[in-house]
Amino acid sequence: MNRIGFVGLGAMGLPMAINLVKKQFRVRGFDMRAEAMAALEAEGGTRAAHAADAARDAEALVLMVVNAAQAESVLFDAGALDAMAPGGSVVLMATCSPAAVEAVARRVEATGRSLVDAPVSGGVVGASGGTLTIMVGAEPAAFERSKAVLGALGDKVFHVGPKPGQGAAVKTVNQLLCGVHIAVAAEGLAFAEKAGIDPAIALKILGGSAASSWMLNNRGPRMLEDEPAVMSAVDIFVKDLGIVLDAGKAMKTAMPLAAAALQMFVSASAQGLGGQDDSQVVETYRSLAGLE
Amino acid sequence: MNRIGFVGLGAMGLPMAINLVKKQFRVRGFDMRAEAMAALEAEGGTRAAHAADAARDAEALVLMVVNAAQAESVLFDAGALDAMAPGGSVVLMATCSPAAVEAVARRVEATGRSLVDAPVSGGVVGASGGTLTIMVGAEPAAFERSKAVLGALGDKVFHVGPKPGQGAAVKTVNQLLCGVHIAVAAEGLAFAEKAGIDPAIALKILGGSAASSWMLNNRGPRMLEDEPAVMSAVDIFVKDLGIVLDAGKAMKTAMPLAAAALQMFVSASAQGLGGQDDSQVVETYRSLAGLE
């Protein structure tokens, strides 16, 4: 596998595509933004005229688009799937619901190609450093064929099951935990503030105790800032916890904490904070507690 | 402050009282169980005939009882408060609601003595090693007087505010985060199981990602065992998340995640698992998902 098509050169996708170039893959990339393609070209990749052009004769087509609808549009409407080499693999790395991945897999497999369901965690830092965590749901043979590509993008590649959709399921759990951990950190810090405790002291105590989470220590300090830099927006969790609950419904698994946490992000978005850093869900709790 | 009364020589209290003895405090201890008092005596402490006897002429009376009701019973019904030295300090280290601590403080202060609200985290390991985290709500002068005693019990002593009840408020947040983190770990692992993912692989991936929490890594492995050792029981979180919600109500702070998580522990208790390890809240989620 050497000829790679890559669609979606955003904050995550561009450094991922560049990592493939650096590992000697021949990468032809497409993105709606010309400057993203120029950046790829400057690093030794090739610019495509459209999505199907990026996919032309590709042995692997990596999709790092926003969601499942975009992936379907690229594959089926824009003709990228039919442009690929016979027997190639679609490597779907966007965050999608397990059911959406299964539906895409059926259509890809009907053409004799494979779907490698491979969502990631690790953010822009992991994408740039080639240190992403990648959760793969794929037939063992398809997983084996894609290993070199995935290994160029992440250093923690887990084959979690033989079915496309199972990678998305683990990513779903990842987003469930991340979203609830952010919301409960906000619930706790708003309570501390109402009790007249300096939230910075509460954070210092809790961040070093059995009450700690990665998100408490990462988002907690930004909850104490008035206008923190936007690392990831409130509306991303409105979307991702929506995927979690859709997946739970499709799979018939009740998810009461996901449901409660989603309402907090929805409310933050309703307050006009959808584009702000997700730590600002604390403002929903402050409103609920009558603070300010 | 050298003469210490100590009431409540349980799994936490006994090693704490022994740590005080080792630091050259004169400790007179009381517990309903004679063998606990014998263990203290063997380490150089003194056995009391009853709670008021433990408190007799004490400059500090440490209470490591089960809850606020027991603390009130010891202080006011059993006569321990009146037996103390004039101007002494009651050091209340049990997990109580902030409102209960405030009520106890008023009655203690009416006798000219001080209440040092000083709940702990760190479990039996921290109690034995003198490495507890201690969250102190107390007037600055009372805090200063109790520093030597608290420093013998914990190595992370934080003065979080000038009012008794504020230590309990931080402990409340601690229990909120711990309880929700356990419940959401169970919510995630049950979902993974339903999706046909090996929960051990899911745990390995999530425990090293932004989705991790101290509780995920501590309780998660026990969620995969059929009958894990009981480190802390389901019913402890029924109690502690109840305190969290009572505190939220008293302080007028809405706590939707605490409310949802409590229901999961209540349900686990309803299934007959109240005395089992709190990781077994995963059985509630497995039932909700129709597993087994």
Fold and architecture overview:
2 copies of one chain form a homodimer. With 292 residues, chain A is an alpha/beta fold. Helices cover 55% and strands 14% of the residues of chain A. Chain A contains 14 helices and 9 strands. In chain A, helix 1 (13-22) links the parallel strand 1 (3-7) and strand 2 (26-30). In chain A, helix 9 crosses helix 13 (256-273). The radius of gyration of chain A is 20 Å and the shape is elongated. The model of chain A has no long low-confidence stretch (mean pLDDT 96). Chains A and B meet through strand 9, helix 9, helix 10, helix 11 and helix 12 of A and strand 9, helix 9, helix 10, helix 11 and helix 12 of B.
Characteristics:
homodimer, 292 residues, N-(1-d-carboxylethyl)-l-norvaline Dehydrogenase, domain 2, 2 domains, six-stranded parallel β-sheet, 55% helix
Radius of gyration of chain A over alpha carbons?
20 Å
Tally of separate domains of chain A: 2
> What's the quaternary structure here?
homodimer
Biggest sheet descriptor of chain A: 6 strands, parallel
Greatest interface and its residue counts?
A: A-B, 72 and 72 residues
Shape descriptor of chain A reads elongated
Helical segment tally of chain A? 14
Q: CATH top level of the largest domain in chain A? A: Alpha Beta
Annotation, overall tally of beta strands of chain A = 9
Strand order of the largest sheet of chain A: 3-2-1-4-5-6
CATH superfamily of the largest domain in chain A: NAD(P)-binding Rossmann-like Domain
* Helix-and-strand structural type of chain A: alpha/beta
CATH architecture call of the largest domain in chain A: 3-Layer(aba) Sandwich
Distance between the termini of chain A: 58 Å
Strand content of chain A: 5-15%
Give helix and strand order of chain A, one letter per element, not per position: EHEHEHEHHEHEEHEHEHHHHHH
* Portion in helices of chain A: 55-70%
Mean pLDDT of chain A: 96
Report the CATH topology name of the largest domain in chain A.
Rossmann fold
| Low-pLDDT windows of residues of chain A | none
